[in-house]
Amino acid sequence: MIADAHAHYNDAAFDGVREDIIVNAVRQCGIIVNAGVDEESSRGCALLAERYGGLYAAVGIHPQHRGDVSALAGLCAERKTVAVGETGLDYRDADGSERQRQRELFIAQIQISKSYNLPLVIHCVNAWGDMTDILRRYRPFGIMHGFTGSAEAAAELVRMGMYISFGGRLTYDNAKKAHKALLAVPDDRLLLETDAPFGPAAGRMGERSGWEDLGITAAFAARMRRMTEEDLVKTVNDNTARIYEI
Ligand SMILES: [Zn+2]
User: What span, in angstroms and rounded, lies between the C-alpha atoms of 150 and 125?
Assistant: First the structure.
């Protein structure tokens, strides 16, 4: 079993097949942290987590979505909510006022994560400067998900206390930067994820991603880190349980 540090089984891509897929995924992964992207999906994640033993919820508002952060507070108190997220910054196609809106939304969620003592699940695209400014200033703890940045960026996040999570994109031949970053992350900060249904592993392009991709990503990461797959999986499972306090 390989723990999945970040997935979106509430996504519409799973409509009609969600239950079967979750039952199987939980069996294969042991632990899955299922993240909301807005108020409604966060509520859905919290409800779904109540129904499956290995399924846990992260509740948050993704930078490309809108919503009222105060609605997250009640969800943070739920028994199986283990994180605040998916949150962060995504500056693709974002003008000045949109960037400002995202920063405010992100900082509000950092504050919620602190008041509930929960880790943050962070998304960062094209916003490294503002991201590091905010992390240095507010000092949250948590994970940087779907990491494809540089080794230097990974090392800096690790110094700030963050865990680094890699998804299926790590396995792409052309993901050279992420390959180097993988080697810059110490054993005790490494996580793997599916980000299901997004970002399938190499060889499964165009597919809806799921637990199958996690096996491919784990084998790839073990090879690159010169570890046995068994050791790598144990490391990742231990880290997932530690950061989410599962
Ligand atoms: Zn995600």
Answer: 13
- Report how far ligand 1's centroid is from the alpha carbon of 98 (Å): 20
How far is CA 65 from each of CA 85, 106, 118, 180, 209, rounded to the nearest angstrom? 12, 11, 21, 31, 22
How far does the centroid of ligand 1 lie from the alpha carbon of residue 129, in Å?
21
Q: Please give the pLDDT value at position 42.
A: 97
pLDDT of residue 1: 95
Beta-carbon neighbours within 5 Å of ion ligand 1: 86, 195
Q: Give me ligand 1 centre to Cα 93, in Å.
A: 18
Q: pLDDT band at 49, cuts 50/70/90?
A: very high
pLDDT tier at 72, thresholds 50, 70, 90: very high
Specify the CATH superfamily of domain 4-243. Answer: Metal-dependent hydrolases (3.20.20.140)
Residue matched to tokens 């880290």: 239
Q: Ligand 1 mean position to 8 CA, how many Å?
A: 6
DSSP percent split of the chain into helix, strand, coil, nearest 5: 50, 15, 35
The DSSP call for residue 209 is: P
Q: Tokens in use for 37?
A: 């992207």
Closest C-alpha to 124, from 154, 88, 97: 88
In whole angstroms, give the CA distance from residue 55 to residue 239.
16
| Predicted pLDDT of residue 40 | 96
Cis peptide before 186 (omega within 30 of 0): no
The confidence score (pLDDT) of residue 65 equals 96
- For the entire predicted model, the pTM comes to 0.97
When the pLDDT of each residue in the chain is averaged and rounded to a whole number, the result is 97
C-alpha 12 to ligand 1 mean position (Å): 14
- Domain extents in the chain: 4-243
